[in-house]
Amino acid sequence: VGTNLTDLRLPRRATVRELGGCMGPIWPSYYGECNALMFVVDAANPSQVSSSCVQLLSVLSAAQLASVPVLILFNKIDLPCYMSLVEMKSLFRMQDIVSCATQPITMMETSARDGTGLTDVLQWLRATLGDSR
After folding, report:
1. Any binding-site annotation on 89?
2. Spatial distance between the Cα atoms of 88 and 19, rounded to a whole number of angstroms
3. pLDDT-based confidence at residue 18 (cuts at 50, 70, 90)
4. Residue 75 assigned to a binding site
5. What angle do CA 108, 67, 72 make, to 5 degrees?
6. Where GTP is bound, by residue (predicted)?
7. Which of 8, 72, 93, 123 has its CA 20 to 30 A from that of 36?
8. Binding residue per annotation — 131?
9. Nearest to 129 by CA among 60, 36, 48
10. How far separated are the first and last CA of the chain, in Å rounded?
11. How much is the pLDDT for 128?
12. Does 133 have pLDDT greater than 50?
């Protein structure tokens, strides 16, 4: 709950601001300073899929984020009840979302608990942020 800040060296310094789903109403106040967006979805909680999809569509339709690269992380793949990337793409209708979006969109499976996918996330950040900032 709330907002958390973390600085990463990619090798340039990048600040990651975490804003939980309950903070959705204030997300737009941060769009202007956003160079990349990571949108995390709980892949082990099917009851949140529809609200996550609505939030994602809201973010993708924001004018200030029209050209900001987006990384969608389907997290919690370490849990036995997680939905696979294929299932999540289907539930989110990702093919339709990607075809209509103005931003480049990348999707990955991750586990914040055991670190699965973290290397790929950091590579995406390095490639996406490059020398911007």
Report:
1. no
2. 22
3. confident
4. yes
5. 15
6. 21, 75-78
7. 93
8. no
9. 36
10. 27
11. 93
12. no
Average pLDDT over residues 55-63: 94
Pull the structure tokens for residue 7. Answer: 């600085």
The fraction of the chain above a pLDDT of 70, given in percent, is 96
List the CATH code of the domain at 3-129: 3.40.50.300
Tell me the range of 13-22, 91-100, 124-133 where mean pLDDT is highest.
91-100
Beta bridge partners of 41: 74
Q: Interhelix angle for 85-92 vs 49-60, to 10°? A: 70
Structure tokens at 88: 């999540």
On whether 2 is known to bind a ligand per the annotation, the reply is no
Contacts of 123 (CB under 8 A, 6+ apart): none
Domain boundaries, the chain: 3-129
Residue 78 has φ and ψ, to the nearest 5°, of -80, -15
Average confidence (pLDDT) over 89-105: 92
